[in-house]
TrEMBL record:
PANTHER family: OXIDOREDUCTASE WITH IRON-SULFUR SUBUNIT, OXIDOREDUCTASE, IRON-SULPHUR BINDING SUBUNIT-RELATED-RELATED. CDD domains: fer2. It comes from Pseudomonas fluorescens. PROSITE patterns: 2FE2S_FER_1 (PS00197), 2FE2S_FER_2 (PS51085). Pfam families: Fer2, Fer2_2. This is Xanthine dehydrogenase YagT iron-sulfur-binding subunit. Keywords: 2Fe-2S, Iron, Iron-sulfur, Metal-binding, Oxidoreductase. Residues 16-92 form the 2Fe-2S ferredoxin-type domain. The keyword Zinc does not apply.
Amino acid sequence: MSVTTPDVAQPAFVRHPLKLTLNGQERQLDVLPWTTLLDLLREQLDLIGTKKGCDHGQCGACTVLLNGKRVNACLTLAVMCDGAELTTVEGLADGDQLHPMQQAFIKHDAFQCGYCTPGQICSAVGLANEGRAQTTEQIKELMSGNLCRCGAYSNIRDAIEEALPACRQRAGQGGEQ
């Protein structure tokens, strides 16, 4: 005896249009409503500088800049970024000219394995944009959401302290806060 199963209609998943400026270029995409910004960047746009660490917003490896502010891409739905300006580590340099924070990280050897480095750099640039970090203690506190398993914290802090004035000048803040 032959058993046949009825045709079961598969649910139609509605993709949502998304328009954003990504690393200085306008992009129009269609995304599923549950797609995280991290998955969009890595899996659909092949921007693999942003790392998937904990996938719970606890390590900071996925930090990117959304309208100049630091966000964890693993906790941000892509549809929330409609109309936004998004910057990843790939978008910080100006052609062959590295961003001042990238230059400082290299100069101070502020990385070991390098896995957390893109998130650390984006977070540090966001910290500079915020204009709140005036002391070493403030830098430590404001960077506490970015973990480094290799323990390069003192080098990371030194790089940030050196690059902050250039980052503020670049952002048009002039360093006064």
